[in-house]
Structures are given as C-alpha cells and as structure tokens.
Amino acid sequence: MTALVLATWFALTPVSQAAVAQQAEVIAEILVHGNHISTNEEVIALSGISIGGPVTPDTITQVRARLKASGKFDQVDVLKRFASITDLTKITLVLIVNEGPVRIDFEEGPEGEEVAVIKRRRGFQNLMWLPILDAEDGYGLTYGVMISRANIVGERSRLSFPLSWGGTKRAGVELEKNFATGPLTRVTIGAAMQRRTNPAYEEEDDRRRVWGRAERAIGLVRLGATAGWQRVSFGPIEEDLKTIGADVAVDTRLDPAYPRNAVLATASWERVGFEDRDVLHRTRLDGRGYLGLIKQTVLAVRVMREGANGPQPAYLKPLLGGWSNLRGFEAGAFIGDIVVAGSAELFVPLTSPLSVGRLGISAFMDTGVAYDHGQRLKDRTRHTGVGGSVWFSATVFRLSLSVAHGRGGRTRVNFGGGLTF
Predict the structure, then answer these.
(1) Cα–Cα distance list, 336 to 44, 121, 379 (Å)
(2) Angle CA(78)–CA(80)–CA(84) in degrees, nearest 5?
(3) Which one of 21, 124, 251, 275 is at 20 to 30 Å from 421 when CA atoms are compared?
C-alpha cells in the first residue's frame, strides 16, 4: 500500500508543477520606497500597473522605462518578489525611486498656520560648488570655484566648470564618467583656456586645450591614457601641439594627507607632435616612500626625473627650484631639457593623531640638477638646499612654509599648499 501511494505521488508531482508553471503571475501587492514629493498613488499611476494585473517577462523593463520617462526621478529601480510562499503566482513589485535633491519650504496653511512643504530642487540649486585654492612660491595664489552637476549623462557622471584667477587663470569645461564594471574605471573629456606666468622666463604662458583621458584601476595600480591638442602662445612663440601619452601609478597610501609606511610611484610617457619641429618623446618618473619611525614621525624620501629625447621648446622645459622640488632657491632658478631631483625629509607632528588637523615641523635636504639634451649628468653642477618647515594638514587642506639655505646661494622662504578633492 505504501509503495502504491509513493508511486502515485511521484507520478502526479510533475503534472502539478507544470500546472503551476502554466498559471500566469499576477500583481498581488505594489510597494513604493524613496519618494518624498510624489505620493505612493502618483508613483503607481506613473508606473502603469495595478493590483491584479499580469506580470510578463517585460513588465520590469516597461515599468522602469515609464517611471524614468516621467522626468520626476533621477534614479529608478524595480524589484520582483514573491508575495506568498504557498502561491508562487502572486507577485509583489517594489518600486524604488530617487527624486534627487529636495528642499523644505514653509508655506501658509489653510488656517494661517505654517506648514512644511517638500519641494524638488532644480536649476542652480542642484549644482555643487567646490572652492579652488592653491598657492606656490613663484606662481602665487590661485583661487576660484568649480561648479558641477552630477549624473548629467547617467549615474556616476559629472559635468564641471572650473573657474580660477590669480596665479593660474583658467576657464574650462570637463565631463567625467565613472564605471563600476567594465574595462574602464573613468573617462574624462574637456576643454580649457589657461594663463600663467612662467617664473623662469617671466613670460605669459597662454594655452587653449582639448583633451580626452581614460583610466583603469586594478587594485593599487592605476593605468591611464591621454590624447589632446593645445594652442600655445609663449612670448614670440605661437604653435599647435598634438599629444598622446600613457601613465601608470602605484599608490599604497591609506592617508594621503599624512602617509606612513607607504609608496607612491608614477611613470608617464608623452609623444608631442609639432607643426615644424621634430617629434618629442617626454618622460617623467617620480617615486616617493614614507617610512614610519618613532611614534608618529615619518621619514619621506623622493626621487624624480623629467626630460625628453631632444631639445625642448622653452615653454615645455622642466624647471628646478622652489617649493615643488628644490627649496632654498627661487622657483625656476634652473632650467634644462632634463631635470633630476631628490629629497629626504623628516616629519615630526606636534599634535595628536586624533586631532581634526595635524600641525608639525620637519627638517629636509633637497638636491637637483638641470641640464640640456646632449650634456651629461655627471658634468653638471648639483644644487642643494637644507632647511626646516612648519606644516599643517587637515583632510583636504595642506599648507607648508619652509626656510632653507641654498648652498652657493642665499636663504629663502618657500611656501606651498591648497585644497585637494
């Protein structure tokens, strides 16, 4: 008897499952999440579905498209869930919407009372404003603002308009798109007009640029490729450049504001094409190491080389001197087709690591050589600066003021710092 019952159950089970599979799925419940301005009823009406309606293979896609087409939501997601564990034909659809930035206004109610009303922020109210602040001896203070709008071409995108004055005068537009998956991590295109004074030649360097860049992050390694066009006006020189380049960076820093037991290494190559000059291949190598010593002290060591395979025009020649690579000398004190520099600096914080910002002092030695193509490094004079500095860092802000003596020269004050995002 038992065997007969089991045989009958196994025989009927496939028939029962097939019958359930053949039954059409229907909407048993609709849930709405994320809305602040639109009511649940309005969201459901825009979705075009209702309780008791059928669920087809295209329902999720169609509902998502209708909600996006309404123009009321920045982001939309539609999830399908089973409403019952005993009846698999009953489906719950979850509508998740994001109406973007909102604001709260206070208006007069029907009886004269003050009522809080949630409204969607539009136009200029949706813009992000970030300050631009940068300072370096030889170039002066640069200040301005970057105006941005997020999700302009989909999620993880941003359209920005950097505007700055002072040491670097710049107006431009940049479109950035980041990717969570795929072969690329970030793509950027942009155009800009820029003017700054070259401290070595004391000439205005005017540039109009158009460029595109693609990046790929693989763990601690970031690969990049850039292509662009520039129109350069530098004193009597006026010419067009076409550039294409590639770069790689390895960054193990956990705290870029005050790295410890970390390495930052970058290498780049750039091909520069001119209208009436030979093609140049420019390279740059920059390696930095940060070793933690007693308590919070850190020893930082840096070695860099920047140069090309031939003579460079004046506006492309790397400069040696100043806060960026040789303190104790003025910015642009030495010029060459090739610059090799190095430094060692001991950082000593004076405040607790738990403080919002870090204040500290340091002792350093900078050294470097600048020489032209065809000359030999060992035949050139090495310049060295020795001194100390006071510095302050807090999240995105850093400021450093140093006093250093350049051997064979004089004692100078160098400064640098600014905001980084």
Answers:
(1) 68, 53, 14
(2) 145
(3) 124
The pLDDT tens digits for 90-142 are 999 999 988 777 666 666 666 666 665 666 655 555 688 899 999 999 999 99
Residue with token string 């193990």: 252
CA 150 vs CA 29, 158, 178, 321, 409: distances in Å: 34, 4, 11, 39, 50
Residue 279, CA atoms < 13 Å, CB-side half-sphere: 7
Tell me which H or E stretch contains 414.
strand 411-419
Domain ranges of the chain: 16-98, 127-419
Four-residue CA torsion sign, 150, 151, 157, 161: negative
Return the bridge partners of 131, or none.
145
Instruction: Write down the CATH superfamily of domain 16-98.
Output: membrane protein fhac (3.10.20.310)
For residue range 181-232, what is the model confidence (pLDDT) as tens digits? 899 999 999 999 999 999 999 999 999 999 999 999 999 999 999 999 999 9
CATH number of 127-419: 2.40.160.50
